[in-house]
Amino acid sequence: MGIAEVTLQKWSDIHDFGRRNWLFRGQRSARWDLKTSLERCFERESIAGDARTALEAELLREFMRTFHNYAVHIPERGSVIEWLSLMQHHGAPTRLLDFNYSIYVACYFALETADEDCAVWAVDAEWVMGEALEAMKQAGKSHAGRLQAKTSAEHETIAGEMLFRPPFVSSVLLHAPRITERLTKSNSVLFILVRVLYG
After folding, report:
1. Which residues of 107-135 are buried (b: 16+ CB within 10 A; e: fewer)?
2. Do 161 and 63 touch, CB atoms closer than 8 A?
3. What integer pLDDT is reported at residue 101 of this predicted model?
4. Per-residue pLDDT, 124
5. Which residues pair with 96 in a beta bridge?
6. In this predicted structure, what is the pLDDT of residue 126?
7. Domain coordinates of the chain in residue numbers?
8. Is 166 exposed, middle or buried (0-12, 13-18, 19+ CB in 10 A)?
9. β-bridge mates for residue 24, sequence order
10. Contacts (Cβ under 8 Å, ≥6 apart) of 61
11. Residue 186 neighbours by CB under 8 Å, 6+ apart
12. If you ran DSSP here, which 8-state letter would residue 129 be given?
C-alpha cells in the first residue's frame, strides 16, 4: 500500500474521507513529513545516531525524577506509554504523534494556524497494525502476538520491548492507558511512531 495525495477543491469533499478504522492528523504545512518532536529535535541539534539512545533515555529519566513535584498520580516506572504520553502533554520531545479519530478535528488543527497549504494525513489503522505485526515477527520480538491486545498492561509490555530493545520496529499504534485533559478535549489518541532513530 502506497501513499495517495488528494487535493480537495471544496469543503464538502472532506465528507468522503471520514472512513471507519482510519486515523487522522492535521498539520499546518503540506510540506511537512510525519516526524515526531524527538526526530525534529535530533535533526535540529545535529545529534548523531549513536548518541540518540542515551539522550532519549536521559530525557525520560529526568522527567520521571521530577514529575512527582507537579502531579498527584505518578505512573508505575515500567509504564512506558503513559510516561511518554505525559511528556508529550507537557511539551517534551517524544517519539509519539497525535492522531485523531475525527477527520473534522484533524482539519481544525491543520487550519488553525496555517498560513500556507495545510494537510491532513489519513492512516488506515488496520493496515498499520498488520505491517507492525509482520515487522515485529521478522525482528524476532517475542511479544509480537500481543500486538492486537486491548489491555494497557499488554500494550506496555509491547512498548517496552519495541522502544528500547533493538532492532526497532518501524511503527505501531498503541493507546495511552490514561487520557490527558488535552487529549480528552481534542478527541485525540496518542500513537507511537517508532522509526529507526538510532544507528
Report:
1. bebbeeeeeeebbbbbbebeebbebbbeb
2. no
3. 81
4. 83
5. 192
6. 80
7. 21-192
8. exposed
9. 100, 122
10. none
11. 98, 100, 105, 109
12. H
Q: How far apart are CA 90 and CA 70, in angstroms?
A: 11
Q: Which of 162, 171, 170 is nearest to 142 (CA)?
A: 162
Measured in whole angstroms, the distance separating CA 149 from the mean position of its chain's CA atoms is 17
Q: So what's the pLDDT on residue 132?
A: 72
* pLDDT band for position 69 (cuts 50, 70, 90): very high
**Maximum Cα–Cα distance across the chain:** 50
Alpha carbons 116 and 65: distance in angstroms, whole number = 41
Written as one letter, the residue type at 11 is W
Q: How far is CA 70 from CA 62, 73, 82, 101, in A?
A: 13, 9, 16, 30
The H-assigned helical ranges of the chain are 37-44, 49-66, 80-89, 103-112, 125-138, 152-164, 181-186
C-alpha cell at 189: 489518541
Cell digits of residue 43? 535533526
- 19 contact partners, CB below 8 Å, separation of at least 6: 122
Dist CA 182 CA 199 (whole Å): 33
CA 198 to chain centre: 17
Query: Degrees (nearest 5) of the Cα angle 94, 97, 98?
Result: 125
- Whether 146 has a pLDDT exceeding 70, the answer reads no
